[in-house]
Amino acid sequence: MAAMDLGITDTLAPLLKDVRAMVRDEIAPLDAEYLAEVPKGDRWAFTPRQTEILEGLKSKARSRGLWNFWLTDSDRGRGLTTVEYAYLAEEMGRSHLAAEVFNCNAPDTGNMEVFERYGTDEMKARWLEPLLNGEIRSAYLMTEPDVASSDATNISLSCVRDGDDYVLNGEKWWATGSGDPRCAVYIVMVKTGGDDQPKHKRHSMIVVPADAPGIEKLRPMTVYGHDDAPHGHYHIRFTDVRVPAENMLLGEGRGFEIAQGRLGPGRIHHCMRALGQAELALELLVDRAEVREAFGKPLSQLGDMYDQIANSRMEIEQARLLCLKAAWMMDQGDARAAAPWISQVKVVAPLVALEVTDRAVQVHGAAGISQDTPLARQWTNLRTLRLADGPDAVHRRQVARAELKKRGRNTA
Ligand SMILES: Cc1cc2nc3c(=O)[nH]c(=O)nc-3n(C[C@H](O)[C@H](O)[C@H](O)COP(=O)(O)OP(=O)(O)OC[C@H]3O[C@@H](n4cnc5c(N)ncnc54)[C@H](O)[C@@H]3O)c2cc1C
């Protein structure tokens, strides 16, 4: 096995410095203004000021070469490893807008990865190029309201061949990014095979233009009461939606193969962004505990605050090392061997970040759950991350099965 180097390389160091400075000095200071613009007028359109903020920051990032870092295994990217990219993702986690400013945001990175690895030349020209340029956005539609979607073998949206087309019928929900007026394309997990086929060969992924006739955006799903406009997570109905047969990715029955390639790196990116949020929460916690006084003392000297601060630091460090190890496993090129490591960190990082954020909320008193700090929004996002891209229990199952297999047990 190769030596495990999880450190900051010479390639990464200048990029990390530039990304850190841009997030701190130029992006994070505009987060609150950008978010406050949303309720004005149509929630599913960008206000002129939002466009100015977002596009202005994107063009600065691009002109500085701080763009599409996530393309780790491709000659089109910056040639970074997953470990190197993980450090950058952590910095991006500290701001609401940062990931998109560097064109490194979910779900577009995962979708671009699919087009890059499995798309035809036509798909690359029509969808990948504008996505890489940050001109359009995309959504990934797997989860369905009527089936337990954490077990993707349950996915049932029907996709039937009819002449030169496929015809899709069914419903999806929690399609993150589908509310965005720039969202032009969906990658949709569908059922193409019958129950006579092996369980993991019954599903496929197909590319559907977001404006295809027969698509109805039924309602935005809310996250603890927030619709996350203008990004959103829509509930979508497909009624006789017709797409050309060449929109099928790789071929019928290969959906699981693609899902594996799509979800691995994205999960690590989510986890490192979560740890960026944990670091921010710890900074805010310490700053608040130092300046706020109660019962004649700074909060930092009351109760178990030292333990809370120390535990937060230790938990973040453990989670970061686990995340970097999972990233390093990905870089070894064996997705199957990396899978249990990705599952471990997908459980650990959101839990740690959520706990540290919760401690910071408490130290801020009522202000902690208000709009006056990023903590309340951050807590909500982190709580949802324990469901999105697979609930904790499903990842624990993966980890446990890997352990049992090591001991020769049958886990089928
Ligand atoms: C904010 C947000 C954004 C999302 N974005 C997207 C998106 O862009 N695209 C998309 O397709 N989906 C998206 N999702 C959906 C998400 O991926 C699913 O909610 C998730 O996979 C779980 O599926 P489910 O909701 O059907 O839960 P179910 O499958 O019904 O599972 C419910 C619960 O059952 C338990 N459970 C399941 N399996 C096991 C097990 N093996 N052992 C023990 N307990 C178990 C767990 O507690 C689990 O939470 C998003 C969700 C959220 C909240």
Automatic annotation (TrEMBL):
GO BP term (any one): fatty acid beta-oxidation using acyl-CoA dehydrogenase
Keywords from the UniProt entry: FAD, Flavoprotein, Oxidoreductase
Molecular-function GO terms, alphabetical: acyl-CoA dehydrogenase activity; flavin adenine dinucleotide binding
Domain (Acyl-CoA oxidase/dehydrogenase middle): residue spans on this chain: 139-240
Acyl-CoA dehydrogenase/oxidase C-terminal domain: residues covered: 253-402
Cofactor(s) this protein cannot do without: FAD
InterPro entries given in the database record: Acyl-CoA_dehydrogenase (IPR050741), Acyl-CoA_Oxase/DH_mid-dom (IPR006091), Acyl-CoA_Oxase/DH_mid-dom_sf (IPR046373), AcylCo_DH-like_C (IPR036250), AcylCo_DH/oxidase_C (IPR009075), AcylCoA_DH/ox_N (IPR013786), AcylCoA_DH/ox_N_sf (IPR037069), AcylCoA_DH/oxidase_NM_dom_sf (IPR009100)
Domain annotation Acyl-CoA dehydrogenase/oxidase N-terminal: ranges: 15-135
Gene Ontology CC terms, in alphabetical order: cytoplasm
Alphabetized PANTHER family for the sequence: ACYL-COA DEHYDROGENASE FAMILY MEMBER 11, MEDIUM-CHAIN SPECIFIC ACYL-COA DEHYDROGENASE, MITOCHONDRIAL-RELATED
Record's subunit section: Homodimer.
Protein family (similarity comment): Belongs to the acyl-CoA dehydrogenase family.
Name of the molecule in the record: Acyl-CoA dehydrogenase
Taxonomic lineage from the root: Bacteria, Pseudomonadati, Pseudomonadota, Alphaproteobacteria, Rhodobacterales
